[in-house]
Amino acid sequence: MATDWIAPDWPAPANVRAVSTTRNGGVSRGSYASFNLGAHVGDDPRAVAENRLQLRTELRLPREPHWLAQVHGASVTTLEDSVSQQADDGSGKSPTGDGAVTRTPGQACVVMTADCLPVLLCDRTGKTVAAAHGGWRGLAAGILENTFAAMRVPPAEVLAWLGPAIGPEAYEVGDEVRAALIKDHAEADQAFEPWAAGKWLCDLYQIASQRLRRAGVTHIYGGGFCTYSDRERFFSYRRDGECGRMASLIWLEN
């Protein structure tokens, strides 16, 4: 099966490379078929390793992407600091967090998703890139704001791309999720539609766009996917429970 990539449609500088994978093109089997990149979901580790090698080879990455130990939080790793720390302590452990920033060519920021929203960011000069994992908990905690702040770039110079996530016609949430997302962000109420008693349909794309704009980032692209409804192309935890993970990556070329 051929590898199936999604290339962001955005006016990024020529040296900024970005891609989101789909579920197609790998060697994993069963509920993880076929291009699962998550090593933490119960798949055969050998299949995950082969899929990750294929990813790196086909994208011509000079080194392994910096896979995060994602926790649905709001902490951001600057990869230069993480690489230095790993070299010092010899741990080789994945940094914990839900956002990553780098200014070093060849170091790929990556987040994994299977319904949550991946957000890729870069600056207009092609010197800084970042990736953020935007589930509802992370969005409520400020993962996008923290990732943007870690870039240390004027907001007018930042481009953002919203990758594949569960769409607003499929993402059913309860009152507690709505309350968390509209707290201190009253405009987020526009992203919810009543669905049933105590239930709402939530538009993650709209919430992310609102938060980026509030931070001053207005050049926003992407959106319009639905991982839940497109079974052929995307993993979806909400739909299937046991499933693989897609990856969204961004890096600088020399």
Keywords:
single chain; 254 residues; alpha+beta; CNF1/YfiH-like putative cysteine hydrolases; six-stranded mixed beta sheet; four-stranded antiparallel beta sheet; 7 helices; 25% helix
Give your account of this protein's structure.
- With 254 residues, the protein is an alpha+beta fold.
- It has a single domain, classed as CNF1/YfiH-like putative cysteine hydrolases, CATH 3.60.140.
- Helices cover 25% and strands 24% of the residues.
- It has helices at 45-59, 79-89, 136-141, 143-151, 175-182, 204-214, 237-240, and strands spanning 5-6, 16-21, 76-78, 99-102, 109-113, 117-123, 129-134, 158-162, 172-174, 192-196, 199-202, 219-222, 246-252.
- The protein has a 6-stranded mixed sheet with strand order 3-4-7-6-8-12. Strands 1-2-13-5 form a 4-stranded antiparallel sheet, with no helix packed on it. It has a 3-stranded antiparallel sheet with strand order 9-11-10.
Whole-number average pLDDT?
A: 94
Question: The CATH topology, please?
Answer: CNF1/YfiH-like putative cysteine hydrolases
Shape: globular
| Number of beta strands | 13
Any guess at the CATH architecture? 4-Layer Sandwich
Q: In what order do the strands lie side by side in the largest sheet?
A: 3-4-7-6-8-12
Order of helices and strands: EEHEHEEEEHHEEHEEHEHE
Alpha-beta content class: alpha+beta
Tally the helices. 7
Total domain count: 1
- Beta-strand content bin: 15-25%
Task: Profile the largest sheet.
Answer: 6 strands, mixed
Rounded to the nearest angstrom, the distance between the terminal CA atoms is 31 Å
Residue windows where pLDDT falls under 50 for at least 5 positions: 87-91
Query: Could you give me the name of the CATH homologous superfamily?
Result: CNF1/YfiH-like putative cysteine hydrolases
Portion of residues in helices? 25-40%
Task: Give the class-level CATH name.
Answer: Alpha Beta
